[in-house]
Every structure is written in C-alpha cells, then in structure tokens.
Amino acid sequence: MKISIIGTGYVGLITGACLADLGNSVVCVDVIEDKVKSINSAVPPIHEEGLLELLKKNVGKNLSASTDAKNAVKNSNITFIAVGTPSRDDGSIDLKYVEESAKSIGKALKEKNNYHVVVVKSTVIPGTTDSVVIPILEEFSGKVAGKDFGVCMNPEFLREGKAIHDFMNPDRIVIGEYDKKSGDKIYKLYKNFNCPIMRTSLRAAEMIKYAANAFLATKISFINEIANICEKVGVDVCDIAKGVGLDHRISPMFLNAGVGFGGSCFPKDVRALISEASEENYNTILLNAVLNLNEKQKMRVVEIADNIMDLSDKNITVLGLAFKEGTDDIRDAPPIPTIENLLRRGAKVSVYDPEAMENAKGIFGNKVKYCKNIESALKDADLCIIMTEWDEFKEIYDKFKLMKNSIVVDGRRILDPIKAEKYGIKYYGIGYHKNQIR
Ligand SMILES: NC(=O)c1ccc[n+]([C@@H]2O[C@H](COP(=O)([O-])OP(=O)(O)OC[C@H]3O[C@@H](n4cnc5c(N)ncnc54)[C@H](O)[C@@H]3O)[C@@H](O)[C@H]2O)c1
User: For residue 434, what pLDDT is reported?
Assistant: First the structure.
C-alpha cells in the first residue's frame, strides 16, 4: 500500500520504517528539515535498536522522507497522523500539532479524487478524532468523512528502546473505525500480523491507549510505594516483587521499583486523562495518587544520598540520563529533577549516559560535567547514583573502586547488593534495607 506519515518522531519513523520493510511504499513527513535529510541519508535521527539497519535496507527503495505534506498525501492512499501531543501547563492535552496536520491533510485531500483513509496514531483524548480531526479534514478538503474519505484511530503501544521489536511483534492491534469501509482498509494493512486485531469505535480506541498507559503507570507507582514500605520494615522489594509477580494474575512486568516513571508518554498521558476527567467533573483519586507518588519517588535517591553525607561541594556521579534504557529520550526523565536537586544542594555533578548526553546538554548546559565513559565519570567521586537501567551499568562492580568513596545509590536496583558488598561497595538502593531482617 502507499502510505504517508505526518510526524517523523519515535512513533512516526518506526511506523514508517517497519511498514516500508513489510513491503509498503512509505513517505515520512516532518517539518524539521534536518530530520528529513538525515532519514534520506539513512542516518537515524534518534537512537532505536535496529533502526539503522531498517533505514539502510529501505531508504532509496520504498522509504523516503519529505517536508512536503501535500505531495506525500496526494501520492498515498493512507495517511497516519503521528505528531506529538504534549501537555499544556495545566496538564491538558495540546492538540496544535494534530490540528495543523489535519489541516494540511485536508488541503491535500481537496485535490485528490480517489478514496483515502486518515489514521490518527498520536495519543489523543477520547472524542478528539470525532470532534477535532474530522471537522478540520472536512473543512479543508470540502469533502465528507465516510463518503469521500475514511477515518481510523490506531493507537500505538510500542516501547522506546524496543520500538521496532514491539511494532513488528505487537500483543494486539487496535483499530478504531469511523465506518466499516475505513476499518477494512486498515485491517488489510495489518492482517498478516500474528496477534489479535480488535476493531472498535474511534472513541474506544482513543480510551484504550490512555487506560493501558494509566494502568502501567499505576503498577510502577504501586511497586514504588511497596518499595518505600520495604525499606521501613526490613525486607528487599526485589524479593517481594518476585514473589508477587509469580502470580499470573499480576505478572512480573512493570514491578521494578526505582526512581519512578518518565518519558514522553506515561506522565503526559496520565495528566491528560486526569484533566479530561476533571472537565467531566470526575475526581481521579487513584490517578492523582499515582502521579503524586511518582513525583516524590524521583527525589527518593537524593533523600537517601542526603542521609549518607552532606552533599554540598561533593563530587556526585549520575549514571544514566535517559528515562529508560535503550533510548536517547530524556523527556520528563527522572534524572533531570534529581540532578537539578543535587545542584541546588551545592553538589558538583558528573554525568554519563551511553546515548542521551547530547540531549542532556540542551538542559544542563555547563552546569554539569559530561564524561565520555563510566570510568571518567566515577573517578574521584564521593557518591554515585544510578538513574537508568542500561545493561552496561549492570556489571561495573570493579569500576567503583575508581571513586574516592565507593558509595552507590542504586535508583534502578540493577546491582546485586551482596555482590556489591563483596567488591567493597557501600550499597544503598530503593526498596533495600541494609540489615535485612531474616
Ligand atoms: N514515544 C513513544 O514511545 C510513544 C508510544 C506510543 C504513542 N506515542 C504517541 O505518539 C505521538 C508521537 O509521539 P513521538 O514520541 O513520536 O513524538 P516526537 O515528538 O518524537 O515526534 C513528533 C514529530 O512530529 C513532527 N511534527 C510536528 N508537527 C508537524 C506537522 N504539522 N507536520 C509534520 N511533522 C510535524 C515533529 O517535528 C516531530 O518530529 C504522541 O501522541 C505520543 O503520545 C508515543
């Protein structure tokens, strides 16, 4: 099929590259020229496992990028909207990029005669496709949804860091459809995927995405609350999560205690759902608590560090800047407020992350020292805080001896405390009690 994608970020580019790899002809559209150039040279503008290989294989054949939305839409039969849907200051969803995309698609549809389906892939509040996207498409195309063009809402569930794997091996595909004809067309695009394909209404598809993210965020805040209690009662949250996660009704996924959730989705989506519910006069007791706990949790490692030593003028190493492993994304990443807090306390902060250093420079400027590897970050440090669960941080026990004091606060519980002690490391971790009560 011929596909255009408006918005070539984490979701748009992965969707485009994967659909091209599956044999479709894809044009990815973005307003950022450098991004477009980079893709057309088969250089990934973001860090994602396997993306370089996919671009090398498909760019110049059935995948290209462009800044020309009109042309891309006119020369395709399906257009995905995959632009960002950030939070406004009050937590509500900002739809300006979705609206702009819908306008440019509408203008292109005006000049197009054959049937076209517009698919909203961006995460949008229930009712958005119906009450915002379709009216704009109709206004700017002079055509009628259902009659002249189709509309679907197809939420994306991929995880950054594993995005290509997740796109190619989804647990399920959800197609919200304006009418059967629209849904049939998108079903055909996905029918060879080996997973359940659920067809539903536009509004239900929009809500499924929010409910899924709200649940996962809740699971993380839940285990973090348990972790904080574990520290008080003298047990290790990792043991507790294992024992709880073995229950099939619960599963071990998303039961890793730590510094809280971040990234471009969970915080903003939970905030948007709370805001939408409040517009409808519903008080989201549970979701408010999920967010409140998450905010506090981001400071937990600083509290632990502060109890160990006076942080003022100390050399503190922060390992990990990305909001999770496998990505260079630092949007709403827990290390950001943690580092800001350390700086406020007068600490001298050195940082290292395998992928997210360039993005972090945009936030911290010259307030922190950027180190080229783990060794230089640890050298002569008074204390190290692990903030991201990168694989390369998991077996560095012998490197902590480069520090002035081998004191480690493990914000992701990726080190084995017993092994750490054997290496002479003074180990502290979220949900870990030094003198476990046996
Ligand atoms: N990142 C994720 O892991 C993830 C997962 C599932 C769903 N989502 C949702 O998908 C959507 C996109 O997220 P993302 O992380 O890919 O965002 P992103 O910020 O990485 O990418 C969005 C892109 O859209 C471009 N853009 C904005 N307006 C445009 C326009 N009018 N025309 C063309 N391009 C335009 C931007 O330049 C940017 O490159 C959001 O709604 C997000 O909530 C994200």
Answer: 72
Distance CA 45, CA 34 (A): 9
Backbone angle region of 150, left / alpha / beta, with phi > 0 → left and psi within -120 to 50 → alpha: beta
- Mean pLDDT, rounded, of the chain: 97
SS3 label, residue 71: helix
Beta-ladder partners of 80: 5, 119
CA dist 354 to 95, 282, 364, Å? 33, 43, 17
pLDDT under 70: residue ranges of the chain: 435-438
Name the residues annotated as catalytic.
265
End-to-end CA distance of the chain: 61
Q: Other CB atoms closer than 10 Å to residue 256's CB: what's the count?
A: 21
Please identify, by atom number, the ligand 1 atom nearest to the C-alpha of residue 157.
6
Prediction pTM value: 0.95
Q: Is the shortest distance between the CB of 158 and ligand 1 below 6 Å?
A: yes
Among protein residues, the one whose CA lies closest to atom 31 of ligand 1? 101
d(CA 372, CA 84): 31
Q: What's the CA-to-centroid distance between 86 and ligand 1, angstroms?
A: 9
